[in-house]
Design brief:
- The structure holds three protein chains of three kinds.
- By secondary structure, chain A is α/β, with parallel strands linked by helices.
- Chain A has five helices and five strands; from the N terminus they run βαβαβαβαβα.
- Chain A has helices at 14-25, 37-46, 63-73, 88-96, 109-122, and strands at 6-10, 30-34, 51-55, 78-83, 101-104.
- In chain A, α1 crosses α5 (109-122).
- In chain A, 39% of the residues are buried.
- Chain B has one domain.
- In chain B, α2 (38-47) packs parallel to α11, α3 packs across α7 (186-203) and α6 (161-167) packs across α8.
- Chain B is globular.
- By secondary structure, chain C is of the alpha/beta class.
- In chain C, the strands form three sheets. Chain C has a five-stranded parallel beta sheet with strand order 2-3-1-4-5, sandwiched between helices. Chain C has a five-stranded parallel beta sheet with strand order 11-10-9-12-13, sandwiched between helices.
- Classes of the chains: A alpha/beta, B mainly alpha, C alpha/beta.
- Chains in contact: A-C, B-C.
- Chains A and C meet through α4 and β5 of A and α2, α3 and α6 of C.
């Protein structure tokens, strides 16, 4: 049962999705990226993702709201919060509300992959293989 | 002097000088790293033909006095959590006692005191194996840290998996430590203290467990961990020295000769830490430790042969021993040379800048 | 002109109180959020620093430098705003952003657990148990933050002038009460504190510039400013960037001179009057050269009523600010003109490349501690002649008290200037001691090595009583030899100037 895990990446800066998508797909995840939180929420209404990666500070909708929305629909989804504008208050709020991990920008794609690997294992998935086989 | 049951060796001018050099290099390394040094001196003495137990015993006795000199300063700085130290000291005593008991047993049981050939082979083998096991792990993880932090990122301090696991143990009762400002489960404290004591007692290297455990498992600030470790080393050294002396395994001559080099070396090493970057410190330390491990591994076949476990031409013994010794000194001298080069370069640079400053001020 | 710093620790209510107070005083109100926003835009990785607290509170080498950037930026940010006039700042650590500036009004706001719990439950929409965990975690993180960034304990009540508990006060009334306090003359900036603010501002702007420039951004610096003279201290391993320092700072407005000093360690030298021609100066410089240390000068002039005569005699023409009443004695201090040899000594230090900055603090010894940057790793504090206006007996007592106090609070060895020579410089007494100890060591070695067999037999005894004796002997002999030879070794290294 090694189906690829589905990942949604939401960040209102286009460059973030553009850079993370190939980096995460490389290790065998299925990735959808969004820049518009409203669109992402709509997509989240259509299907459940295994892992959701979201920025905190965006126009209209905050990452915390995305987190709450995701967990209210699917408790098993692992939500990873990424942000440059992190304070302990925001980080603790995200964690207490059920975020899987909190990652401060700037980070390297490998940092995110390491967190995703742990998330995948927590989902009962074998995780990212040490050498990605295509 | 062979009538002392093969415990002590004859010391001539040449071997005395070697011990002093061992002490000097060990001192530089221990001042540079902040703890340890024993990982270099113990195998060095074993290479001189000193039985492992006596090497460990003499080295612990040496560590006792050295730590006593060091802890006076640290206490002045208030970097010692007395409560933490007290807990660790008490548990480590149990570990040391256990280690001394095991070591003495091995020495007396192994190969027979008057038996043909090796009287101390079994205990030598045991000490070498523990030495190799622990230090290979320590050296490898240190190198790994140094190499990974070399890249741009990696802000997370290194935390071995074992430490993280222990840190997650939430088993009451808890103990609060005021200076270090942490709360630790009593059980974790007992395990760490016991392990530290056992390692200190077996190979004379306890700091390699104690300091990382305090930092990564207990979450103690680094300065407090280093200060507390010195305090701890003093008590563990004292207790170890008394125990080994009671068993008759302290060679006072060795201890005195070690001091001759190490107390000077320590200052040079401490100076080195001020001018060398942290990554380089870890790199040098890791490499030296791994080379020490390798040197010890080369010495193993001789012990195995003495025990009759493998069939080897006894003619190979001197070769192995010489190779082992060569590697050890190579490791020590290379490491020290690197440190000294850095010290010297920093010194020169400072002089130059001072000169330019004085020039502009007067001109 | 005044600056009011409100340290919020309540999670809710502190901001409202600050805004209410600012509104009543008719001054602008600035929050930590504004500061962070600006720091973020300046490219400082605030998020990384904050997240490090959540993950245990330890800073890597790189983050430690990011911390310097952040601290300098916050000080510069606050000083920038303060230059335009009075303000109210609210945040975790407002009271620590302007070290050494007197007459700030520092208020801490606390609230009882139930109040905070309810506020969090309401605002975050989480159940009670989670809210409790959230508060515990955030408090712990903040404690770590204050500790990691400023090296002090957040809870220490002595850092604040007032603590307001929102349990009994409602925010409106608390703001009204604080308005009265804020108008007291004790909390109006004096010329001395304005100068301290200017110096701080200059140093902070310089540090920010160093952080922005690619040539110097990766290195650690300590910058102090005094009347336009900037002293930049750097560590030996970043000596390579030293030539870039003056170039980076030349564009900075208000700088008269830049002094760059390499420091392996720092020595803090406290005096009431400095003299570059004195014996003390020579000793301090000698110790500093030996250690590769920078010397920071701190001129301590007496505070409170004792200062009356001194002040009146030295600076009669000073203009007191509004509300000239008790508690502002040091206003008449004129640090630029009558500085007790401070600037002359600083210049002399700079000429030998040992300058670590200089400044004047007029305060009692317990306030003095606030003026000392506790994140600087001082290796020695030297206390010279202070409290000159006191009689001899009182002065001796006060100096001893000050030294004890500093040693205890800074956790650094503290010596009097007259002991400096005997402790850290190689004198005749040291030579005698070295030779004497060396002779003892030689004796011990000779005895042991001429009687090797007897010694070994003694240590490898069989009978229990003899074994106990051997253990006891080891316990006594080894530390004695270590002490004797250790002293010889350290004295010898002191002699050849390698420490």
């Amino acid at each position: 049962m090694n189906r690829p895990l589905s990942v949604l990446i939401l960040d209102d800066e286009p460059i973030v999705g553009k850079r993370l998508k190939p980096a995460v797909e490389k290790v065998g995840f299925e990735v959808e990226t969004f820049e518009d939180p409203a669109q992402a929420l709509r997509r989240l209404g259509e299907r459940d993702f295994d892992i959701v990666v979201t920025d905190v500070r965006m126009e209209e909708v905050s990452g915390i709201q995305v987190l709450e929305h995701v967990l209210s629909r699917s408790r098993r989804t692992k939500v990873i919060i990424i942000t440059g504008y992190a304070t302990v208050e925001v980080a603790r709020e995200a964690l207490v509300k059920g975020a899987f991990e909190f990652l401060a920008k700037p980070f390297k794609p490998s940092d995110l992959r390491a967190v995703m690997d742990r998330a995948a294992r927590a989902l009962g998935h074998p995780g990212i293989p040490k050498t990605p086989e295509e | 002097m062979d009538l002392f049951l093969g415990r002590f060796v004859t010391i001539d001018a040449g071997s005395a000088l070697q011990v002093v050099v061992l002490g000097f290099i060990g001192g530089i390394l221990s001042g540079f790293i902040g703890s340890g040094g024993a990982f270099f001196m113990t195998p060095g003495m074993m290479n001189l033909g000193v039985p492992g137990v006596v090497a460990v015993g003499s080295n612990i006795a040496h560590k006792f006095g050295k730590a006593m000199m060091g802890s006076r300063r640290h206490k002045e700085l208030g970097n010692v959590d007395r409560r933490l130290a007290a807990f660790l000291i008490l548990t480590s005593f149990v570990g040391i006692r256990l280690a001394v008991w095991v070591n003495s047993l091995m020495f007396e049981g192994g190969g027979g005191e008057h038996g043909e050939g090796g009287s101390s082979a079994l205990s030598n083998l045991y000490i070498s194996l523990v030495f190799i096991g622990i230090l290979a792990f320590v050296g490898a993880s240190m190198l790994k840290d140094a190499l990974t932090t070399r890249g741009e990122g990696a802000d997370q301090a290194p935390s071995p998996r074992m430490a993280r696991l222990l840190a997650r143990v939430h088993a009451p009762p808890y103990v609060n430590f005021p200076v270090a400002d942490v709360r630790v489960s009593l059980w974790v404290l007992l395990i760490v203290g016991l392990a530290t004591g056992y390692m200190a007692g077996t190979i004379g290297v306890g700091g390699f467990i104690g300091v990382p455990a305090m930092i990564y498992v207990f979450g103690v600030p680094t300065s407090v961990a280093a200060g507390t470790e010195l305090y701890l080393a003093m008590y563990m050294g004292a207790f170890g020295a008394i125990n080994y002396a009671f068993q008759g395994f302290v060679d006072l001559r060795m201890t005195l000769l070690l001091y001759l080099g190490s107390l000077v070396g320590v200052y040079v090493g401490v100076y080195g830490t001020k001018v060398v970057r942290e990554v380089v410190i870890r790199l040098v330390t890791g490499t030296v430790i791994l080379l020490c491990v390798f040197s010890r591994a080369i010495a193993l076949p001789a012990y195995l042969r003495e025990l009759g476990l493998v069939n080897l031409d006894p003619g190979w013994d001197p070769v192995c021993n010489l190779a082992s010794k060569a590697f050890l000194f190579l490791a020590g001298i290379a490491g020290c040379a690197l440190i000294l080069v850095h010290v010297f370069r920093a010194y020169r640079q400072r002089r130059r800048i001072e000169a330019t400053l004085v020039g502009t001020a007067s001109g | 002109m005044q600056i009011i710093c409100i340290s919020r620790g309540t999670l809710r209510g502190g901001k409202e109180l600050a805004e209410g107070l600012a509104h009543r005083l008719g001054v602008p109100c600035l929050g930590r959020e504004d500061l962070i926003e600006a720091a973020f835009r300046d490219g400082i990785q605030v998020g990384k620093l904050e997240t490090a607290m959540v993950k245990g509170g330890r800073l890597s080498e790189r983050l430690a430098i990011e911390k310097e950037h952040y601290l300098a930026f916050s000080t510069a940010f606050l000083c920038d705003r303060a230059r335009e006039g009075s303000l109210v700042y609210h945040g975790r650590t407002g009271h620590l952003l302007l070290p050494g500036v007197e007459h700030l009004l520092r208020i801490r706001v606390v609230a009882d657990p139930e109040f905070r719990l309810r506020a969090v439950m309401r605002d975050l929409g989480i159940p009670r148990e989670k809210a409790r965990r959230y508060i515990e975690d955030v408090d712990e993180d903040r404690r770590r933050w204050v500790h990691a960034m400023y090296g002090v304990s957040w809870e220490d009540a002595a850092q604040y002038d007032l603590i307001v508990n929102l349990h009994a006060f409602n925010i409106e009334n608390a703001a009204a009460a604080l308005t009265g306090v804020a108008q007291l003359p004790d909390f109006q900036m004096s010329p001395a504190s304005l100068k301290a603010l200017d110096d701080l501002h200059l140093a902070a702007r310089a540090r920010v510039l160093l952080a922005r420039d690619d040539r110097t951004r990766a290195a650690s610096f300590k910058v102090t400013g005094s009347s336009g003279v900037l002293t930049v201290t750097y560590l030996p391993h970043s000596a390579a960037v030293a030539p870039a320092i003056p170039k980076v700072l030349e564009a900075l407005e208000g700088v008269r001179e830049v002094r760059a000093t390499m420091a392996a360690t720092n020595i803090l030298w406290i005096e009431e009057a400095f003299d570059p021609a004195s014996e003390s100066f020579r000793h301090v410089v000698e110790v500093a050269s030996k250690w590769g240390a920078a010397v920071e000068l701190l001129r301590l002039c007496p505070a409170g009523a004792d200062a009356d005569e001194v002040a009146a005699a030295s600076a009669p023409a000073a203009t007191p600010p509004r509300g000239a009443a008790g508690g502002i004695e040091e206003d008449v201090e004129e640090p630029v003109v009558v500085d007790g040899g401070l600037s002359a000594t600083a210049d002399a230090l700079a000429s030998v490349g040992r300058s670590g900055g200089a400044r004047t603090v007029c305060a009692s010894s317990d306030r003095l501690i606030e003026a000392i940057d506790r994140t600087v790793p001082y290796s020695l504090v030297v206390v010279g002649d202070v409290y000159l206006s006191k009689g001899h007996a009182a002065r001796v007592r006060l100096v001893r008290e000050l030294m004890g106090f500093l040693g205890e609070r800074l956790k650094v060895p503290t010596v009097g200037i007259e002991d400096l020579k005997s402790r850290y410089l190689f004198g005749r007494a040291d030579l005698v001691r070295m030779v004497g100890f060396l002779a003892l060591v030689v004796l011990v070695f000779a005895v042991v090595f001429t009687n090797q067999e007897a010694v070994l037999r003694f240590f490898a005894a069989e009978e229990t009583w003899a074994r106990v004796l051997a253990a006891a002997a080891a316990f006594v002999i080894i530390p004695v030899v270590a002490y004797l030879y250790g002293t010889v070794a350290s004295l010898w290294l002191k002699w050849i100037r390698m420490e």
